[in-house]
Amino acid sequence: MSEFNERVPLEALDPGSRDPGFWLRFHNRVMDRARAELSRRRMAAELSVVDVVFAWRRALVPMALLAAAMAGILLMSHEPEEPVQLVALEDVLTEGLNLLPTTAVLSGETTVQQALFAATEDGF
Predict the structure, then answer these.
(1) Residue 6: domain span
(2) Which of 17, 16, 13, 36 has its CA nearest to residue 26?
(3) For labelling alongside 9, which of 24, 36, 76, 83 has CA 20 to 30 A away?
């Protein structure tokens, strides 16, 4: 046999090989230490979403009010953009409108606010 196929005795690593009651005591010790956490998890499994939200109400309500106030401040400080006037295709074809060259629009030289496909000299 090669050196890789040899069986290595691992009994020395097993604490239960010399002490027959080791694993039973180990199991009981672990279960005693975990009893509080296991009961907490058992109770948490029975909780509903409403119960969790109710338990977190002291932190959730002030944070929700703060988020709403910040959103209101941001919305009130935001300046509205200029309204865009839409033109029907029939008006573009029948009225005398100055059209932007499509090469300027497609080349990327204009921004989104500058790219108007149809505009009159006097406005609409």
Answers:
(1) 1-46
(2) 16
(3) 24
